[in-house]
Design goal:
heterodimer; A: alpha+beta; 11 helices; B: 396 residues; 40% helix; binds flavin-adenine dinucleotide
């Protein structure tokens, strides 16, 4: 056997000026509207998403249509820009349906390559930011996972329950994979029941979706649907790495800031070497996570054949890095880190949930095994 | 005033060099000398000293064109300390005379360099060193002992730091010299290491006379000069472009593919995790390189050595285990004094043992973590009780 192929093009791992501009725009919007207290308060209310914030992000900045071509009313930007938005949303543990709607659901629809018809119409709706859509599959589903079976379709009428669907409570449209193909189902009708579940991550709601004789519009037949949904999940997984990066960066920065100020034994606790070394190790993980996340975003943006491996590598690495950063953040904050008032817990919960979303690090390692030709015994 | 050469100019010069010295018929040293004279050794160096005063980002243009033409490159194993550490220090602090004398043969690999810094009593705490240099007319007379000196047995020249004023606090009484390793009073003794061979040495300096013209920087400011050397030592790693599986992960992945009978589930999980980490470290190095080329060097450089040290050790450790019964064997314990350090060409047991040095040489991982914590993250410095005490009054 030979070594796995090296893709010909060298990935661009830096940020362009336009990407940095987009970052500043998102960052100042979030600073104005979504501070940690607001996030905590929203998390406890019945409606985790601030509709005005989503409107400002989706339409004001145009985030909802970043990936959608200009001909359909989108921004015609790429996964690289979407990744930068996710870095900022991760940094703020911002509750917003960007990853699920503007990335994963949109990525699924884009993979169907429709220039007109219901798919194009739905994409245009999503790009406008007035409608959000989610994939009706469990949030834990990896790009290689089983997609159908929960919902049965018969002549456009759908029945079944899918548990653990992220952001379904805020969605107008469900994209439902079935053995017959991919259906578009509006959540407004009586035949759709959304039961909120108590989620580990307070900032990204989960629901059980039950369809009882719901009518759907067929968007793609079974063969096309499978590839498209997998591509949507791959896009979600690849860009989730950027959310994890932003989250880990916040945890590190905040921990450094706090340990420089907090005094014990007549010294800042950040002057103790055991802590300094842990934070230096975290820093190394964060800069490494950045390279991995950028590589995944660039591979998706360029449609590189290396994308599945780049995404699996990024997920296997960034999931662990983010969880580690959030765990260190809680520990190095001491008692304050355990309180409900301090935002550290929001980051830990998001990080841990993210490490399961779109496949665990372990399932992505399994993908690496296949693609890098390191087969199991 | 002439303007800095652009990419076209650099390409033209590279073509001219290749046509005047066709790689197929030109001997390696002659080619490297001509490349130096054409200003294509390190384009960001001054004109006349192997460079063109051009942006550093144009070096890859030269390297790619020369590689494509099959031109002989310099052997990184022969010029490691010279190129990575001596050259930037000489360039930063040397006299014109010193620059003209030393840079060209260093570049061409005609003269190997070593680094006489560490001492038995001063390693991480390098500024505590006790080797003395006493002024005698136009010379300095040096007495002391250095240790763990890589390549001292093949080196023609050494960068040396020595104490010139024991009454000052330790950082202030040090001066920096270029030492001729062939001078009387320089004695190099092999120091056998963990691998069985002697890649490094002890160096005894007894009444060695160094002319004052081979001092680098002002008397008493050797610590400042040494900072340049050490910074370059740490940054010189990590910026190279390597292919996927280009590092130590390559041999173990190949063994895994070729020897299914060795596979276990436990090793599979560990290998996959390390494969991912090696790939991410490669990408981080690539990102660092892209930042350098774009003229925005990031602090990642200080972290890469840490990452590679840990990875090399874990990967080579796993490889010995993967080999099972064969892992119980070792290639060769003969005490040899290799001229070149050959890392990947040897067996897994050698790699396992040699990589233990990766977290010690050039600053231990613990010391590098301090540097990252303090200089990159801005965490408070370690409390110190050695700063204002004369060197001679320090406890040791
Ligand atoms: C293969 C190899 C090649 C080398 N080549 C050269 C060479 O060519 N020229 C040369 O001059 N030197 C060379 N060295 C020496 C090397 O630079 C020193 O070994 C190194 O700087 C560490 O110093 P030390 O060995 O005295 O360890 P010590 O400083 O005695 O350290 C002992 C332990 O204490 C830890 N420690 C020390 N200070 C701190 C601190 N402040 N905080 C936390 N932990 C600390 C260290 O990390 C280490 O674990 C080489 C070493 C090796 C292994």
């Amino acid at each position: 056997m030979t070594a796995p192929n090296q893709s010909a093009a060298t990935p661009d791992l830096l940020y362009s000026e336009a990407e940095e501009d987009l970052r500043s725009a998102v960052r100042s919007l979030l600073a104005d509207r979504a501070g940690a207290p607001a996030v905590t308060a929203a998390a406890e209310s019945g409606t985790p998403y601030d509709p005005r914030l989503w409107k400002a992000l989706a339409t004001g900045i145009g985030a909802a249509g970043l990936l959608v071509p200009e001909t359909l009313g989108g921004q015609g930007a790429s996964h690289r820009e979407a990744a930068v938005v996710l870095e900022e949303l991760g940094r703020g543990v911002t509750p917003a349906p960007f990853l699920t709607s503007a990335v994963a659901a949109t990525g699924t629809l884009l993979a169907l390559e429709a220039e007109d018809g219901p798919v194009a119409a739905l994409l245009a709706e999503l790009a406008s930011g007035r409608t959000t859509a989610v994939l009706a599959v469990p949030f834990a589903t990896p790009p290689s996972g089983a997609l159908t079976g929960a919902v049965a379709a018969s002549a456009g009428v759908l029945d079944g329950t899918v548990r653990g669907v992220a952001d379904a409570v805020a969605a107008d449209v469900l994209l439902v994979p079935t053995a017959e193909g991919l259906y578009e189902v509006r959540t407004a009708g009586d035949a759709v029941a959304l039961e909120p579940l108590v989620a580990l991550d307070l900032t990204r709601p989960l629901a059980a979706v039950t369809l009882a004789g719901a009518t759907g519009t067929l968007l793609a037949d079974a063969a096309a649907a499978d590839g498209a949904v997998r591509h949507g999940l791959l896009t979600g997984a690849g860009l989730l790495a950027s959310e994890q990066l932003g989250l880990a960066e916040w945890c590190l920065t905040e921990t450094v800031r706090y340990t420089r100020e907090r005094h014990q034994f007549n010294r800042p606790v950040g002057s103790f070497q055991s802590l300094k070394h842990r934070m230096a190790q975290l820093w190394l993980q964060v800069v490494s996570a950045r390279a991995a996340a950028r590589n995944a975003a660039d591979a998706l943006a360029t449609g590189s054949p290396d994308a599945p491996l780049a995404v699996a590598v990024a997920q296997a690495y960034c999931s662990k890095a983010a969880v580690h950063a959030a765990e260190e953040c809680v520990q190095l904050h001491g008692g304050i880190g355990m309180t409900w008032e301090h935002p550290a817990h929001l980051y830990l919960k998001r990080a841990k949930a993210d490490s399961i979303a779109y496949g665990t690090a372990g399932s992505h390692l399994g993908t690496v095994a296949g693609l890098a030709e390191i087969p199991a015994p | 005033m002439t303007t800095a050469p652009d990419a076209d100019e650099v390409r033209r010069r590279t073509r001219d060099l290749l046509s005047a010295y066709p790689p197929a018929t030109t001997e390696r040293t002659a080619f490297l000398r001509a490349r130096f004279d054409a200003g294509l050794a390190w384009v960001h160096y001054p004109a006349g000293l192997g460079g063109l005063d051009a942006p550093r980002s144009l070096q890859p243009v030269v390297d790619a064109a020369l590689a494509a033409a099959g031109a002989p490159g310099n052997d990184p194993r022969r010029i490691g300390i010279g190129l990575g550490m001596a050259a930037p220090t000489i360039l930063g602090f040397g006299t014109d005379e010193q620059k003209r004398r030393f840079l060209r043969p260093l570049w061409a690999g005609e003269e190997v360099w070593c680094q006489l810094f560490s001492e038995p009593g001063a390693g991480s705490d390098l500024a505590a060193l006790g080797t003395r240099a006493v002024r005698d007319g136009s010379d300095w007379v040096v007495d002391g002992q250095k240790v763990w000196t890589s390549s001292a047995h093949v080196a023609r020249w050494a960068i040396l730091i020595a104490r010139t004023d024991p009454d000052l606090p330790k950082h202030r009484g040090i001066s920096y010299f270029i030492c001729d390793m062939t001078d009387p009073g320089v004695e190099v003794r092999p120091l056998r290491q963990i691998t069985g061979e002697a890649e490094f040495n002890e160096v005894f300096l007894t009444g060695v006379r160094i002319p004052d013209s081979r001092r680098l920087g002002p008397v008493g400011e050797g610590w400042k000069v040494a900072q340049t050397t050490l910074m370059n030592e740490r940054v010189s790693i990590g910026g190279a472009r390597i292919p996927r599986e280009g590092g130590m992960i390559g041999p173990v992945s190949r063994t895994w593919r070729e020897r299914p009978e060795l596979r276990t589930h436990d090793l599979h999980q560990r290998l996959l995790t390390l494969w991912v980490e090696a790939e991410v470290a490669r990408l981080t190095g690539e990102r660092l390189r892209q930042q350098l080329v774009a003229g925005q060097p990031g602090p990642e450089g200080s972290g890469m050595k840490l990452a590679f040290a840990r990875l090399n050790q874990e990967i080579s450790g796993l490889e010995v285990e993967l080999l099972g019964q064969e892992g119980l064997l070792y290639g060769d314990w003969t005490m040899r004094r290799p001229e070149l350090v050959d890392f990947t060409g040897r067996d897994a047991g050698y790699r396992y043992l040699r990589s233990k040095g990766n977290s010690i040489e050039g600053g231990t991982s613990e010391v590098l973590l301090n540097i990252v914590a303090e200089r990159v993250l801005g965490l408070p410095a370690e409390p110190r009780n050695d700063k204002d005490v004369a060197w001679k009054d320090l406890s040791r």
